[in-house]
From TrEMBL:
Residues 403-442 are annotated as: Disordered. This is Glycosyltransferase family 87 protein. The chain crosses the membrane at residues 20-43, 75-91, 98-115, 121-138, 145-166, 172-195, 202-220, 258-279, 286-304, 362-385. Its EC number is 2.4.-.-. The lineage of its organism: Bacteria, Bacillati, Actinomycetota, Actinomycetes, Mycobacteriales. It comes from Nocardia halotolerans. GO terms for molecular function: glycosyltransferase activity.
Length: 442
């Protein structure tokens, strides 16, 4: 509201001031996360089992030897992932870990740039420092770097996939997705996005790349078959620790199996209805459809199957960025309450109210993912019912006023935060400054 009361020229200046004020915060936050927090590390070390497995692979020894009775991080990558990541063990552990942190930080920064370009923002926009600061202040980026895992590279693969999919470069889009699946199947649900858009060539490389890498890795590995006989049964189980899925928290709190199953079925129905409405009424709005459809898919894949961890939420950045689109389903406070639940780095454990604090800390991610899915369902459902009552379903779900709402894709002044569009009949529209208005220097 404040910017709406200012003249356009003043509003533009105000936005520039905010932009330049944000850049130092964003840059220093990035440096802190990479060179202080990540290098310091934490008791949780996702990189040690990866390094050890890579070392064993390079020396021709068994890789899948983890004792799954412990709660320590385990090595869970498939043979194709082992082949890709094995070079990290060529050098000593500490330097290797630092380089892996740098690799993921660079991948996140490149993903940040691709995310800006996806929504038609440039480095000079106020969105650039705001997005950078938000990303590196989130739990998912901080713990990805501190725990030293591969999620930063997966985020980059996701942004490459979305860019290439929208550009109809199907084989390259599939290759980007296939490389990520070869390491971790986190992004595998995105194959459904390509399927509902009829981009079937994506499947050639998305499936072919991991299969080819597995074929290469198999004769080079000592025990590749144990991934399927030892690791996959463990992955199929629902564990009651470090697990924010419905099943994981249900087990932790001792809920009956029927209640867990009922919750999963209800939420699966919510997801299915949301995906159908998106496909039925928004599939021709390419950017909104791909980013929102993939966001709902990935959120459901974190919440409903056997394992969902908080830092998986990094893959939702493209979905969260849809807030700048005129028909976004995230322009409401319940959506951002949900996002706070799984994105914030805050800890809610309390010394004074221990049981309440523990419940808030352990459940906020599960409730956040669940609330986000419910928000999408309610927004789309409300639009559908309103359109049906008005008899305009054949024209889509968006009301008429939304066609002229601000949107980052139109490249207009309305897309720039802090600026109002200038109308031709605006009596206070500013004139361009001229040299004659500047005081002469004596």
């Amino acid at each position: 509201m404040l910017f709406r009361q200012l003249e356009p020229r003043t509003a533009r200046t105000t936005a520039d001031v905010i932009k330049f004020a944000l850049w130092p915060f964003a840059i220093m936050t990035v440096l802190n996360r990479v060179f202080i927090k990540a290098i310091n590390g934490f008791i949780t070390d996702d990189y040690r089992p990866v390094y050890n497995a890579s070392f064993e692979f390079l020396n021709g020894r068994p890789v899948y030897t983890a004792n799954f009775d412990s709660v320590d991080p385990h090595y869970l990558y498939p043979p194709s992932g082992t082949l890709m990541i094995a070079p990290v063990a060529i050098i000593e552990y500490e330097l290797s870990r630092w380089l892996f942190i740098a690799l993921n930080a660079a991948a996140i920064l490149l993903a940040w740039y691709l995310l800006l370009r996806l929504f038609k923002f440039g480095i000079g926009s106020i969105a650039a420092p705001a997005l950078l600061l938000a990303m590196f202040s989130s739990e998912t980026v901080i713990n990805t770097l501190v725990f030293t895992n591969v999620n930063g590279c997966l985020l980059l693969a996701e942004l490459l996939f979305i860019h290439l999919l929208l550009a109809r470069r199907d084989l390259w889009a599939g290759a980007a997705l296939g490389l990520s699946i070869a390491v971790k199947p986190t992004l595998a649900p995105l194959l459904l996005v390509a399927a509902v858009r009829g981009q079937w060539k994506v499947f050639i490389t998305a499936c072919g790349v991991p299969v080819a890498l597995t074929a290469i890795a198999w004769p080079l590995s000592k025990d590749p078959e144990k991934f399927f006989t030892h690791v996959m049964p463990y992955l199929a189980q629902t564990r009651d620790y470090f697990n924010s899925s419905v099943g994981g928290n249900g087990l932790y709190y001792g809920l009956p199996h029927w209640l867990i199953l009922l919750t999963q079925i209800v939420m699966a129905g919510v997801v299915a209805a949301s995906l159908w409405l998106l496909w039925r009424y928004y599939r021709h709005d390419d950017l909104f459809f791909v980013t929102t459809f993939s966001g709902v898919l990935l959120t459901a894949s974190f919440l409903l199957p056997s394992l969902g961890q908080m830092y998986y939420s990094m893959m939702l950045f493209p979905f969260l960025m849809t807030v700048v689109l005129r028909n976004s389903v995230l322009r409401n406070w319940p959506a951002w309450l949900a996002i706070f639940g799984f994105m914030t780095y805050d800890k809610w454990l309390s010394d004074r109210w221990q049981s309440t604090g523990r419940a808030l800390e352990y459940l906020r991610v599960t409730f956040g993912w669940g609330l986000l899915l419910l928000v999408v369902f309610c927004v789309l459902g409300d639009r559908y019912l309103a359109a049906r009552r008005a008899g305009r379903l054949q024209f889509g779900l968006d009301p008429a006023w939304m066609a002229d709402a601000p949107d980052s894709r139109n490249g207009s002044d309305a897309a720039t935060p802090g600026r109002e569009p200038v109308r031709e009949d605006d009596p206070v529209a500013p004139e361009e400054p001229t040299a004659e208005r500047e005081p002469a220097l004596k």
